[in-house]
Specification:
With 718 residues, this protein is an alpha+beta fold. It is built from 20 helices and 28 strands. The protein folds into 3 domains: 3-208, Aldehyde Oxidoreductase, domain 4 (2-Layer Sandwich), CATH 3.30.365.10; 215-294 and 353-428, 2-Layer Sandwich (Aldehyde Oxidoreductase, domain 4), CATH 3.30.365.10; 314-344 and 441-717, Aldehyde oxidase/xanthine dehydrogenase, molybdopterin binding domain (Aldehyde Oxidoreductase, domain 4), CATH 3.30.365.10. It comes from Pedobacter metabolipauper.
């Protein structure tokens, strides 16, 4: 068959995907509210390009194409656990493959704790659909009603005779069937795998060295690059002396490069060599003169001084407003007006940024720890002037991401260097590169005003002043408030407090910022939940009782009941400090209670953390507990140990010696409880973070009377 005779429809059939195995996927019509399940024959007949999600082989094995990244959050386990439940196969018979970047998979961004919450219904339905198709074929072969058959452990079994077919014996016929439109899903009470603490499929690979992370990827003829980048984002390369770098054994070339950081180009000098070591040594030998004129070289004290001045003088842009907080605050005799401050933070994943790119004539292929393969495709195709389908993005395991690896700068940089060299290139970032280049979680100041009357909160007015991550993405300021200004604040409060407003006071610097685990909820939560605690004191109310009073919905009440029960809140003793906070993040609500006391030397210590997670429908309780524990550890570091600071436009921290991480001895006992209900799934990987810091600082106030409004603080010097 000549090339011009091979349509997409014929290609699918010629390639053998139809007829020899059962391949099911989703089709996402632009006008449809939800995905349509389709098999290979259906896709070919409709001339639709379909990406496979599950592929059942003739040997009965199931290949799952995981469309999201695995960066420690557990999708490599949770998604197969969902598939295995409704498909009725053993987890050992599922092979997990990372899908390439392609819009046919829908949104592939691993962020916003969205992998399960946005996809679990489709995944359940897809798996059940495959099971029904296989049962239908088996029933037809036996000449019995499909209702007399059931599936178990990769087989279809006839209830009366106990005859059975292996799935592999049925796939050829099943592939010819249209996908049924309506299938009945299991009840929660019927689950055999879901909601069970099953061991993760990726743990053996990550402990025996067979897991492939970005740095493990190797290609024939691959060279290595290290880049000396301008330490001030908007600066340029004035000149460079590469004579010493070129004398380093293994260094092949040195040249100037530019990479796009959202809408701003960052300049640097690339050193390409035959090994990572040679590239890094060559980079150290470089002498670069930077041109840093034309933009402000800002310092940390100036940032917060300006923010506080703006909060005094500006009402800001309202995100939401109900009632008239100004009027109520003006009339009330019992008001509070305070400012909270949170620092810039680095993502600091244990695996620094890296990427492999191979530019070949009219196509580009990328491999690496990438959170957003579809975004990278869009970004690189535009920058490199290549058709989107010619940019192939492959995901490896990520050694942590926290939002940093949903960024497109490092794949772009690797692509530019590969095109220049004409060979595969692996770009390596050092820990110093990661710390000094950003992007960072923005530092923010909050002005919080409130009024209480007769023991009730009657008005809340919040203003947030800090960099808007969307401005970096879009390249321009907006006349609308940051859509995340109220993130973390529970919606039921709006029902019980009649006068509430949230506003953004816009603030810009040359510092690059972007999402950080739990995004703005990580900073909002500290300000808003700490302030509610202050209002509880003002009202003469127990802090948990005040929240119960204003969170009147059933789910919140049950959450508070559980928090009281597990923590022994009502039996608090003298010389113990208890603090509470409840935050919402990515459709999950987490309540935390922290207990503190002082040791025999008078030093503050955290005795216990209780976390209660309401994430609705969920998959694996062990993964939830691990994610909440990890979130609390990350929050502890950001609250009490590290921050990013600037002097003359330069980052002052460079590595873990001055951007320290929590050690095992810093971590208190953590107890995680999961609420059981029938609500839709919420997120898990991020919602455990925002509530910890305010619960901790509220506990410190309860014990010592010291109110902490500025982060980070030294736990040992309270």
């Amino acid at each position: 068959m000549s090339s011009n005779e091979v349509s997409r429809r014929n290609f699918l059939r010629v390639a053998g995907l139809a007829g020899t195995a059962l391949c099911l996927g989703f089709y996402f019509p632009s006008s449809a509210e939800e995905a349509t399940i389709i098999n290979t024959n259906g896709a070919a007949d409709a001339d639709i390009e379909m990406n496979p999600w599950i592929y059942i082989h003739t040997n009965g094995k199931v290949t799952l194409f995981n469309h999201r990244a695995e960066m420690g959050q557990g999708s490599y386990q949770s998604v197969p656990q969902i598939i295995a439940e409704e498909l009725e196969v053993d987890l050992k018979d599922i092979i997990v493959a990372s899908a390439q970047g392609n819009k046919k998979y829908g949104n592939q961004v691993t962020g916003g704790s969205s992998t399960i919450r946005s996809g679990y219904k489709n995944l359940l339905k897809l798996s059940a659909t495959a099971r029904v198709m296989l049962i239908t074929v088996a029933a037809t072969k036996w000449g019995v009603p499909a209702g007399d058959c059931y599936a178990e452990s990769g087989h279809v079994i006839h209830k009366i005779t106990n005859k059975k077919f292996h799935y592999g014996e049925l796939v050829e016929e099943a592939a010819k069937l249209p996908a049924p439109k309506d299938v009945v899903l299991k009840k929660t009470s019927e689950y055999k795998l879901i909601r069970k603490p099953l061991k993760r499929l990726d743990t053996p690979m990550k402990t025996n060295g067979t897991a492939i992370f970005g740095l493990d990827k190797k290609l024939p003829g691959m060279l290595y690059a290290a880049v000396e980048r301008n330490p001030r984002l908007r600066g340029t390369v004035k000149s460079f002396d590469d004579s010493a770098a070129l004398k380093v054994p293994g260094v092949k070339r040195v040249f100037k490069v530019k990479m796009l950081v959202f809408k701003t180009y960052r300049e640097g000098v690339a050193v390409v060599a035959t090994s990572t070591w040679a590239a890094l040594q060559g980079k150290k030998a470089l002498k670069v003169e930077w041109d840093d004129t034309g933009f402000e070289h800002i310092s940390t004290p100036v940032i917060y001084q300006r923010q506080q001045e703006l909060l005094k003088s500006s009402e800001g842009l309202f995100l939401s407003k109900q009632g008239n907080p100004n009027e109520t605050l003006g009339k009330s005799k019992d008001t509070l007006d305070v400012v909270y401050q949170t620092p810039y933070q680095s993502h600091s994943p244990m695996e620094p940024v890296n990427c492999v790119a191979h530019y070949q004539d009219d196509k580009l292929e990328i491999w690496g720890p990438i959170q957003a393969p579809d975004w990278v495709q869009d970004y690189i195709s535009t920058e490199m002037k290549l058709p989107r389908e010619k940019v192939i993005v492959n995901m490896t395991f990520l050694g942590g991401g926290f939002g940093r690896k949903a960024f497109m700068d490092y794949p772009h940089e690797a692509s530019v260097i590969s095109k220049e060299m004409g060979t595969p290139i692996q770009v390596i970032w050092t820990r110093e590169d990661d710390a000094t280049q950003g992007p960072y979680r923005p530092g923010i100041s909050y002005r919080c005003q409130g009024a209480v009357t007769n023991g009730e909160i009657t008005a809340l007015k919040f203003r947030m002043c800090g960099q808007n991550n969307d401005h970096w993405r879009n390249g321009a300021k907006s006349n609308q408030a940051n859509r995340s200004t109220s993130e973390g604040f529970l919606k039921p409060y709006y029902e019980s407090i009649k006068d509430v407003s949230f506003a953004e006071v816009q603030f810009e610097t040359p510092i690059p910022t972007m999402w950080w685990r739990s995004v703005y909820a990580s900073t909002n939560g500290f300000a808003y939940e700490s302030f509610l605690d202050e209002l509880a004191v003002q009202a003469g109310k127990d802090p948990l009782d005040l929240r119960r009073q204003h969170l009147k919905d059933e789910r919140s009440q049950k959450l508070i009941d559980k928090m009281e029960e597990v923590s022994g809140w009502k039996n608090r003793k003298k010389n113990e400090g208890y603090g509470v906070a409840i935050t919402e993040c990515f459709a999950s609500t987490v309540g935390q209670i922290v207990k503190v006391s002082k040791d025999q030397n008078g030093k503050l210590k955290i005795d216990q953390v209780w976390a209660v997670m309401d994430c609705g429908w969920y998959v694996n309780p062990d993964i939830i507990k691990a994610q909440v524990e990890g979130s609390i550890v990350m929050a502890l570091g950001a609250a009490t140990i590290h921050e990013i600071t600037f002097k003359d436009g330069l980052v002052e921290q460079r590595n873990f010696y001055d951007y320290k991480m929590p050690r095992i001895t810093d971590i208190p006992p953590i107890e995680v409880h999961i609420m059981e209900n029938t609500a839709d799934a919420g997120g898990v990987g991020e919602p455990g973070l925002p509530a910890f810091t305010p619960a901790l600082t509220n506990a410190i106030f309860d014990l010592t009377g010291t109110r902490i409004r500025k982060l980070p603080f030294d736990l040992k010097n309270i």
